Amino acid sequence: MAVVLDRPSTGETGRKQRADLVARAADLGPTLRRNAERTEDGRRLAEENVAAIEAAGLFRLTQPKRFGGFQADFRTKIEVIRELAHGCGSTGWTTSLLTGGTWFIGMWNEQVQKDVWGEDSEARVAGVLAPTGTATAGPDGLTVSGRWSYCTGCLHAHWLYLGVPVVDVDGNSVDHGLVLVPAAEVTIEDTWFVAGMRGSGSNTVVADQVVVPPHRFISLRRLQTGGNDSPYSGEELYRVPFVVAAMTDLVGPQLGLARAALEFVLEQASRRGIAYTEYTTQVDSPAVQLAVAKAATLIDTAELLTFRAVAEIDEAGRLGVFPDRRTRARCRMDVAQAIVNAREAIRELVSVHGSAGFAESSPLQRIWRDSEVASRHAVANPAIGAQVYGRALLGLGEGVTPLV
C-alpha cells in the first residue's frame, strides 16, 4: 500500500482550517514562553494560558462540529500541539491530553455528548485509561471507587473518564472500559511532584462510591476492535483506530519541544564560544556543525514518522476501515520511534550548547527535563512498540499488549 504524509481528501477547506488553527497556536507562543516558569513553579497551567487557549478555540480542536467544535483531523492536531509545546511543554502536553479527552467523547453515545456539552459547549474532559478502579453493577448503574494516577488535565477539566475493570457475578474479568463522571464528584490529590512536565498538574483522581448511570460506560474492547457508540457514522474523526490514534497525543508535544531546543541552540551558537579551544563562536566549529545537523535530521525524521502514522489514521477514518494488525503495529512503532528521535535530538542539542544550558535561567534545561519525563509514558515504550511490530511482521498474531 502506498504511504502518503497527508491524506488526499484533506482538500482546500481542510488545509485552510489547518493553517488557521496552527496560526492561532503560533500566536500564543510569546504568552506561553512568558508564563513557562510560572507554569512550572505553580505545578499547573498558568490561568492566562488556559484562558488564551480557550479564547483561541484550541480546546475544541477535536470536538464535534455539532457542538461548535472544529472536528479537525489528527494531522491538524499534531501541528497545533507542536506549536503550543514550542512555547511551553507542559501547556502543549496538557492541551494534547485534554483534546484527546474531547475526542473520546465524540466516540461515546449521543446522551453522553449531550451530558458533557448540552449546557456548556466549552466543557473539557480529562482522564486515565488504566483500570485502577472498581465498578460494581447496581440498580442505578455502576458504583465506582478507586484511585487514578497521572491524570493530566484534571485541574482544568469539567468531566473525567476513568478506566475500570468489568467483572461477572463470580468476580471474573470480562471487559475493561471507561466510566464518565463529573469532576465535581471526585477529589484531586496533589501528588504530581516530578522532575519534568511539572506544570501539567497530572495529579491523582480519587472516587469514592460514585454512581455512574449505565449510558456513561463504554467498552474499551469495543473501541480497540474498531467500534464505537456514536450514532453519527459519517463523523470520520471518531471512527479512526482507537489505540494508535490515542497514542498520538504523546508525540506532538515532543516535536514542539525538540523544535524549541533546536531554535534556541542555533540562535545562541553565534554568541557562544567553546571553552578551552580556539573557537570564539560555536558556529565556526565543525563539531557543532555536525551536531546540529544530526539533531535537525532526528527532528525531521520524527516528524516524518509522525505524519506517516497520522496519515494512516486519518485515512482509515475517511474510508471507515479498521486497519489490519500489521498496519496498526507499524503506526504504534512510528509514534514510539518519533518520540525517541525527538528526545535524542534534544540530548544532542543540550550537549552541544554546553553546561550553561543547565542554568535555571535557561529554557533549555526545562525543555530537556520535560522531554525526558514525557517520553517515558508507558504507552509509548519503544521496546514494547518494537516487540508488537516485530511480532506483526513475523505473523505471530496477538501478544505482549492488547493496545494495538
How are the SSEs ordered, and which strands pair?
Elements: H1 11-27, H2 29-34, H3 36-42, H4 47-55, H5 74-87, H6 89-106, H7 110-117, E1 125-128, E2 133-138, E3 141-151, E4 159-167, E5 173-182, E6 187-189, E7 203-212, E8 217-219, H8 220-224, H9 242-247, H10 252-269, H11 286-319, H12 325-353, H13 363-374, H14 382-393
Helix pairs in contact: 1-5, 5-6, 5-10, 6-10, 10-11, 10-12, 10-13, 11-12, 12-13, 12-14
Structural overview:
With 404 residues, the protein is of the alpha+beta class. The chain folds into 3 domains: 8-122, Acyl-CoA dehydrogenase/oxidase, N-terminal domain (Butyryl-Coa Dehydrogenase, subunit A, domain 1), CATH 1.10.540; 125-224, Butyryl-CoA Dehydrogenase, subunit A, domain 2 (Beta Barrel), CATH 2.40.110; 242-393, Butyryl-CoA Dehydrogenase, subunit A, domain 3 (Up-down Bundle), CATH 1.20.140. The protein has 14 helices and 8 strands. The chain has helices spanning 11-27, 29-34, 36-42, 47-55, 74-87, 89-106, 110-117, 220-224, 242-247, 252-269, 286-319, 325-353, 363-374, 382-393, and strands at residues 125-128, 133-138, 141-151, 159-167, 173-182, 187-189, 203-212, 217-219. The model has no long low-confidence stretch (mean pLDDT 95).
